[in-house]
Structure prediction request, 118 residues.
Amino acid sequence: MTTAPAPSSRDLPHPAREEIRLEGVLHALSDPVRLRIVRELAAEGVELSCSFFELPVSKSTTTHHFRVLRESGVIRQNYEGTAKMNGLRRDDLDDLFPGLLDCLLTAASHQSTRGHSR
Prediction:
C-alpha cells in the first residue's frame, strides 16, 4: 500500500520503506536514463530539481522516468516552491538491500568508462 499524499494536492505518494521491493528497484534501475538520474543524484549528494538533469528524452518521457523511480522507492520527490525536487532514498535502500546501490553505481561507472573507450 502506497503512503497517501498529504492534504496538499502537490504532495506526491511514495512507498513506505517496508513496501519497497527489490524487483521494483531493479526494474527502475534497469533503464539507462533512470540509472543516469540515480548516478547524478548519488554524485551530487543533495536534492536536485528536475530541470537540473539534461536527458536525451522528451519532457513527458522524463516525467515518466521520475515517476517510475519515485513509485519504486528509489527517489523521493517534493515541491519546493515551483520546483520539483528529487532526492535519492539512499538510507532506505541501504537498510533494505545492503550494498546493492553502491554495487550498481560502481558497475554503472565501470560500464560507462568502458563505453567511452570504444
